[in-house]
Amino acid sequence: MAKPSDEQQRALAGLLGLGSHSARKSHYPELAARLDELEAERNRYKWLFENAVQGIFQASLLEGMRAANPALARMLGYQDPQDVLFSLADLASNLFVGGAQELANIGEILRHQGSLHGYETQLRRKDGSSLDVLMNLLLKPDQEGLVEGFVADITERKLAQERLQLLNDELEQRVNARTDELIEARDAAEAANRSKDKYLAAASHDLLQPLNAARLLISTLRERKLPDIEQVLVERTHQALEGAEDLLTDLLDISRLDQAAVKPDIALYRLDELLGPLVSEFQSVAEADGLHLRVHMGDYAIRTDLRLMTRILRNFLSNACRYTDQGSILLAARRRGEMLSLEVWDTGRGIAPDRLGAIFLEFNQLDVGRAADRKGVGLGLAIVERIAKILEYRVQVHSLPGRGSRFSIEVPMSREVPLPISLATPQPGTGNPLPGRRLLVLDNEVSILDSMRALLGQWGCEVVTATDQASALSALAGQAPELILADYHLDHGVVGCEVVRHLREHFAQAIPTVIITADRTDQCRRSLQRLGAPLLNKPVKPGKLRAVLSQLLG
């Protein structure tokens, strides 16, 4: 092996800290080999320093830049790395955009912490433009004030972030604009829906007035002996009017339920108060269809809205009669913990499992064969579902095709059971109390007055008609009627309840009264409760009217 040169011997002495005495031992082969290894290592680091992609530099906190690699020079717009070896004063003015203050802050951090990682700043290029960089700085612990740094150009990343932020801002603006449009569209739709509901309510009320008159006239004809051909025509007309009545009633109820105009009036009732009138109403309906209606009540009391619960059970019973060709229908109450399950069973055709989820949709009907056999438009169970949500009750359906169905609803049960009261249904054996009774009919529609006069006259009643309080007093000629049938809404904003009060005061008698109206609002219902008068909704069903009159006059 060749003997190391004098320059190599001096470099080795400086690297290893050897004095002149040690240098004289350079003729040892081990020292020569070690010198070659160190030289190779130095060349490797030098190559990495000069060819690194990131900028690398060495600087002094007291003097400024001492070394820089070509990557840092190119990054700053210089050809030669020597051009970026700025003094401490030039660093503040020529390199750091933040100036002397930023440079002082960096030095302070390095003195206290020894390093600074992930530091983002801007450096000034040769042409005066700025460059976004990420720096990692390390203070050499064994050499006072000596700093080694690594610099990465993050200008493209910053620009991408700015573009992304701009896109996000634009997207947010678009989302906000679209949200505003959707809010406006929603508000317009809600306004249109409210307008539709108001129009539907008004139109339904106006349509029910002539329909009520027509139903009364048809009922009068149905009770007369007519030739067979005319009797068939009358019966078909009756069925058509009945279908139109059911449709308008359901549409009006759906409208009120959708606009949250129905508020439940929860009170304590005996179970027979709820089920008794329904049994009386559907007993004849079931018999007419060749069905047997069975009842299992029990001595229970429930807390509910009597009117809304009656509507639910009436729909259950009506569907049971409609979709049962033969067999029986059971109306039952079963105790389930603190709840009472009110159930309607039938032996009808049943419902396929894949149809159970659709039966509560609007305008959905089961297949009943020919179109002529279908009744209604499929709103009954949609109304049931909405009422159940208002009352917060659970509705359940269980059905087996070909064997029948069970519809049930769970109602809160009360431990307190009120004393029995007389049922609101006429008792058998009382005879016919209507012939010869003097009745006052009060309505602002002349067609309804004529229809009511014909129907009640056919039942043997003496009928006095009037359109307002003045004409009523004139027609009565000082003799009080035995019963008043009054419309709720009269002309000029007058309410029938007010006229009834005046007539009762005038004759000093608590004259029995029935209010007939197409108004289904809670305000109307509360007025009737204060008056103590039963309510019949238009169009009036003659059978129900006769039952109520028989009870009040019997």
TrEMBL record:
<dbReference type="InterPro" id="IPR035965">
    <property type="entry name" value="PAS-like_dom_sf"/>
</dbReference>
<dbReference type="InterPro" id="IPR011006">
    <property type="entry name" value="CheY-like_superfamily"/>
</dbReference>
<dbReference type="Pfam" id="PF00512">
    <property type="entry name" value="HisKA"/>
</dbReference>
<dbReference type="InterPro" id="IPR036097">
    <property type="entry name" value="HisK_dim/P_sf"/>
</dbReference>
<keyword id="KW-0547">Nucleotide-binding</keyword>
<keyword id="KW-0067">ATP-binding</keyword>
<feature type="coiled-coil region">
    <location>
        <begin position="157"/>
        <end position="188"/>
    </location>
</feature>
<dbReference type="InterPro" id="IPR003661">
    <property type="entry name" value="HisK_dim/P_dom"/>
</dbReference>
<dbReference type="Pfam" id="PF02518">
    <property type="entry name" value="HATPase_c"/>
</dbReference>
<dbReference type="InterPro" id="IPR000700">
    <property type="entry name" value="PAS-assoc_C"/>
</dbReference>
<feature type="domain" description="Response regulatory">
    <location>
        <begin position="438"/>
        <end position="553"/>
    </location>
</feature>
<dbReference type="InterPro" id="IPR000014">
    <property type="entry name" value="PAS"/>
</dbReference>
<dbReference type="GO" id="GO:0005524">
    <property type="term" value="F:ATP binding"/>
</dbReference>
<feature type="domain" description="Histidine kinase">
    <location>
        <begin position="202"/>
        <end position="415"/>
    </location>
</feature>
<dbReference type="InterPro" id="IPR003594">
    <property type="entry name" value="HATPase_dom"/>
</dbReference>
<dbReference type="InterPro" id="IPR004358">
    <property type="entry name" value="Sig_transdc_His_kin-like_C"/>
</dbReference>
<keyword id="KW-0175">Coiled coil</keyword>
<dbReference type="InterPro" id="IPR036890">
    <property type="entry name" value="HATPase_C_sf"/>
</dbReference>
<keyword id="KW-0597">Phosphoprotein</keyword>
<feature type="modified residue" description="4-aspartylphosphate">
    <location>
        <position position="487"/>
    </location>
</feature>
<dbReference type="InterPro" id="IPR001789">
    <property type="entry name" value="Sig_transdc_resp-reg_receiver"/>
</dbReference>
<dbReference type="InterPro" id="IPR005467">
    <property type="entry name" value="His_kinase_dom"/>
</dbReference>
<protein>
    <recommendedName>
        <fullName>histidine kinase</fullName>
        <ecNumber>2.7.13.3</ecNumber>
    </recommendedName>
</protein>
<dbReference type="Pfam" id="PF13188">
    <property type="entry name" value="PAS_8"/>
</dbReference>
<dbReference type="Pfam" id="PF00072">
    <property type="entry name" value="Response_reg"/>
</dbReference>
<keyword id="KW-0418">Kinase</keyword>
<feature type="domain" description="PAC">
    <location>
        <begin position="117"/>
        <end position="166"/>
    </location>
</feature>
<keyword id="KW-0808">Transferase</keyword>
